[in-house]
Amino acid sequence: MVSTFPFLRLLKRLELDPCGCAFFLGAGCSLTAGIPLESEDAADVPSIATRIRQMVYERYTGQRKANPRDVERWLKKKKWLQEQSTFYTDWLSLMEMTLEEGCRFRSQLLQGCSPAPGHYALASLVAAKAIHYILTSNFDFLIERALGDMAIDVQVVTLDEAENLPALIDSLSPLVIRLHTESAVLPPCASSMTFTDAAERVRRVLEVILENRSLVVVGYAGRDDFIMAPIAAWVSEVAPRSVQDIYWVVVKGTPLPSRVAAWQRQRPDRVWSIETVGSDVFLSELCARVIT
Prior knowledge:
Elements: H1 5-16, E1 21-25, H2 48-61, H3 68-78, H4 87-95, H5 99-110, H6 117-127, E2 133-136, H7 142-149, E3 155-157, H8 165-168, E4 175-178, H9 195-210, E5 214-218, H10 225-238, E6 246-251, H11 258-266, E7 271-276, H12 279-291
Parallel strand pairs: 1-2, 1-5, 2-4, 3-4, 5-6, 6-7
Helix pairs in contact: 2-3, 6-7, 6-12, 9-10
């Protein structure tokens, strides 16, 4: 059971203002749905990044089932797939694949996966009008599927539509804000947006969200600078004048991301960490405590 002060503080915030908190979902929220983390291997399931590295290695060496460490050393020697910001596009170039072919490959990895208990718990909170905003960096559409399974009407906003967010933020319909350009209703990779453009739009989205709302981060490791930088700006510039909080949910035994730990030291009254045994447990208990 989660009963720490930050958790109880979050419960109180949701009780006082359901529209005053936005939930940010990272890849950790989809682990129990059978989807490995984008950049980490978990439960003996290779991550998408590991599979991509293996594909490139096999194509250029003809060797199969190589040790991941050998693959990594070979790629470092070649200076291939070393930059996070260009990892995906570099892979497409090395494999001589189009954007559409790359998206189809990624979609195949996600086939057969169903929403996790945490997705349904979050959908129940939306149905109960306990929360109004969900942000996600995931490509799996599992939160949308959970909301659809429960016949909950939501508006999905991608980065392509980020310019309209200030006008949509006060919409009566709950919002799912995807921090990339793909949505369940748009053709895969239909956008030609560059990484730099996307990073700027993510910054604008987070600025709008953090203007007068608390942020609850679940299942996210905090590795993306284009996501972390706007939050850092809020902590250093806006937080002293704000009554909003950041709640960072972390799995027990896993250290806080170093930047989050630094934010806590900087603003211990505004940046909180909540330990849990897993994203599903946290979201399910939050749902049970809020709705009952």
